Amino acid sequence: MITAEDAKTLALALGFDRAGIAPALPGAHAGFLRDWLARGYDGEMEWIGRRAGERMDPREVMPGARSLLVVGLVYDPAGPDLTGPVSAGRIARYAGGEDYHELMLERLEALGSALEARAGGPVSQRAYVDTGPVHEREAAAGAGLGWIGKNTCLIDPELGSYLFLGVLLTDLELAADAPIEDHCGSCRACLDACPTDAFPEPYVLDASRCLSYTTIEVRGEIPEVLRAGQGDWVFGCDVCQEVCPWNTRTRRRVPADSGGLRARLAPRAAWRAPSLEWLLSLGEEAWRAAAADTALRRTKRRGLLRNALVAAGNSGDRSLGPAVRRHAEGDDPLLAEHARWALRRLELATSG
After folding, report:
1. Into how many domains does the chain fold?
2. Which candidate in 46, 109, 144, 339 could, as Cys together with 177 as Cys, close a disulfide (CB 3.0–4.6 Å)?
3. Do 235 and 137 fall within a single domain?
4. 182 belongs to a structural domain
């Protein structure tokens, strides 16, 4: 018989930093999800609503599921490189190394194999890492890995919120862990720091205004009203996590990288502080080589160029003018529109 402690011990032995158990039952926030979708906060991500029922009840994802084995892994504890060029773009901390989806799934599948070996027979299970209809954050909160903060990120009291989460649905009956109480208190740091006012209220994210949505999920134009707030971000955003007191160096306690996973996830040198001039010059072949095996592939070259044009416009650096102008005079209407906007911004910055 496999116990919950057996399962969690196996998970930690495979290199995960946290492991907990939640029951495979409807989540406590089912009503919240319905309201969130009704308010249009999902933007163009219609795939969230299409499988809303599965997101609310994991047993619809895997009939017969009894337990959720939830794991967490800290990423990029060193933080961003602040020594790069002045006119540099910023990418979210998670994105510049090996694609976490594949790495986490690889280890979750190994965990499933280990559970079967320990059980001495077949164990029904399915692994998910941010790609299926499983609400990882709610599962992690239910498994006691942390609480969902006002910025809607899961916060571990020792590890902070820079965490990858994965879930293994299983038909094993495992004792659930106790949830952790909310420790956000009266703090509003994340809400007040958001550059695009993406939080209409605490614990509620309007994804359609979030830079992680507009720079990655949106395939067309970035709404002009949000472009100035994008600043130098070219892929995702970490602002609401950077200002969180639970992510300070003095408070975080990052474990040793026993499984070697963090080394593989660490951002490559090219993505620590990529110059905007370099990004704007990337051809298709160079883009594919630089983004190979990273989560950056999600936005595709066109999306990254669009984002870099917005960042160039916000930079105030007129030396980027020729690189921006090439796109303004190019054949791609989407890039040309963002380039013209960037040129107007650069002109205004100079005249001001």
Report:
1. 2
2. 144
3. no
4. no
Q: Are β-strands 233-235 and 90-91 bridged in parallel, bridged antiparallel, or unpaired?
A: parallel
86: in domain: no
Strands, DSSP E only, in the chain? 18-23, 67-74, 90-91, 125-128, 147-148, 154-155, 163-170, 233-235
- Round to whole Å and give the CA distance between 266 and 125: 29
Domain that holds residue 157: 4-75+97-170
The answer to whether 30 touches 56, Cβ cutoff 8 Å, is: yes
Cβ–Cβ under 8 Å, residues 147 and 179: yes
Query: Is 50 a residue whose pLDDT tops 80?
Result: no
Question: Catalytic: 99?
Answer: no
Angle between helices 4-13 and 100-119 (to 10 degrees): 140
137 and 52 share a domain? yes
Which entry of 130, 171, 182, 257 is annotated as an active-site residue?
A: 130
Last residue of a domain, one of 170, 203, 226: 170
Together in a domain, 62 and 113: yes
Amino acid at the residue 346: L
pLDDT digits (tens, 9 = 90+) for 205-225: 999 999 999 999 999 999 999
pTM value is: 0.92
Report if residue 85 sits inside a domain. no
- Which tens digits make up the pLDDT trace of 308-338? 999 999 999 999 999 999 999 999 999 999 9
Going 262 to 247 to 70 to 35, the CA torsion angle's sign is negative
SS (H, E, C) 175-225: CCCCCCCCCCCCCCHHHHHCCCCCCCECCECCHHHCHHHHCCCCCCCCCHH
CA–CA dist 68, 238 (Å, integer): 28
